[in-house]
Design goal:
With 352 residues, this protein is mainly alpha-helical. It is built from 14 helices and eight strands. It is 40% helix and 5% strand.
């Protein structure tokens, strides 16, 4: 694979693993240790230079501590960097703060005690990068158990404050599934793995992207952003690529209900074999700006191949061919094909 020879260690590491390089090998370890010196990583860790007031905006998109850690985990930043521990501690302080737990941020509405309204993607990402970056705290397990306790009857989560919302949001469910699975596999914690697999049973009856009633595409209605049929990057909530990545992690790409999403992703392949970044989530900026990123995430546009998007898409197709997940643990070891089968109960609620 040509990308394996990239000068960018982020690209080279991902491409090497995809080409068959053992993640636990000395060669892979040496390559991964170069990632902190990459342009993306060097830009992201500028968060450590922020003044206390700016740093206090933990959830700032995408330059605050929470999203910086998410992005570092996305680029396979090596685990155990002690310089990042204060950021992780700040996030844990935030998600366990009194304000974070007060209504309406977290509330069970009258008549719906089993449907706690909460933006579970926050917790899901915090769990995921804490594991991936080797920076878990004692409170991380508490976060896992709390999230499992708030799981809705249909297997997901939702932060919609309307009482009419009686089914889970895919945008608030895929990220928690990824976080819970990472924790469950790292610690052999069955409740977390089972909770993650329930999300697959939520989204698969909708073929990941489509309403069951009428078959129309599920279109998020916030911020005027392009729908899930477009590839978003670097931060993803719900789109075709991310949904398939989560199914790959869960070992569910062999389910025929993933076929339409796989076909949609394949149709985006460009003549050079790459895949495009169709809907950038961040604006590159040296300053702290709304939806800004210190890092540049590569070419965007429907006709330009993006290396990181390309590698993510190719990893999905590789997993679909093998139909077994490949998880890169914090210590660099690869876990192939050991996803624990989850509860196969089908979702009981229709999409709105």
């Amino acid at each position: 694979m040509a990308l394996a020879g990239s000068d960018d260690p982020v690209v080279a590491f991902k491409a090497g693993v995809l080409s068959g390089l053992d993640p636990a090998s000395p060669q892979a370890a040496a390559l991964r240790l170069r990632i902190p010196g990459s342009p993306i990583a060097q830009a992201l860790v500028r968060v450590l230079q922020q003044d206390a007031k700016t740093l206090g905006h933990t959830y700032r998109k995408w330059q605050g501590p929470h999203w910086t850690l998410t992005c570092l985990a996305m680029i396979d930043y090596p685990p155990g960097d002690r310089a990042l521990r204060p950021l992780v501690a700040r996030v844990h302080d935030w998600v366990f703060s009194r304000h974070f737990l007060e209504p309406p941020l977290t509330a069970a509405y009258p008549g719906q005690p089993e449907r706690v309204r909460h933006c579970a993607s926050m917790d899901g990402n915090a769990i995921w990068y804490s594991v991936r970056l080797g920076l878990e705290e004692d409170r991380t397990r508490d976060l896992v158990d709390r999230l499992i306790g708030w799981q809705w009857p249909d297997g997901g989560w939702n932060c919609d404050k309307s009482l009419r919302a009686t089914h889970s949001s895919f945008q608030e469910s895929l990220i928690p599934a990824r976080g819970l699975l990472a924790y469950g596999q790292a610690h052999h914690y069955a409740p977390a793995i089972e909770a993650a697999q329930r999300v697959a049973d939520l989204v698969l009856p909708r073929r990941l992207l489509w309403h069951r009633a009428g078959g129309g595409l599920i279109i998020p209605d916030w911020d005027g952003r392009p729908g899930p049929d477009r590839i978003h990057y670097p931060v993803q909530f719900f789109d075709v690529l991310f949904a398939l990545e989560v199914m790959a992690d869960l070992g569910r790409l062999g389910d025929e209900r993933c076929s339409d999403a796989l076909a949609l992703l394949e149709a985006k392949r460009l003549p050079d074999g790459g895949f495009p970044l169709e809907a950038p989530n961040a604006v590159t900026s040296d300053q702290v700006v709304s939806r800004g990123s210190y890092a540049s995430w590569g070419p965007s546009g429907r006709r330009a191949s993006n290396p990181l998007v390309t590698l993510a898409a190719l990893a999905v197709f590789d997993a679909a061919t093998r139909r077994t997940p490949v998880m890169i643990h914090p210590d660099g070891a690869a876990d192939r094909g050991h996803a624990v089968p989850g509860n196969r109960r089908r979702a009981t609620r229709e999409d709105a």
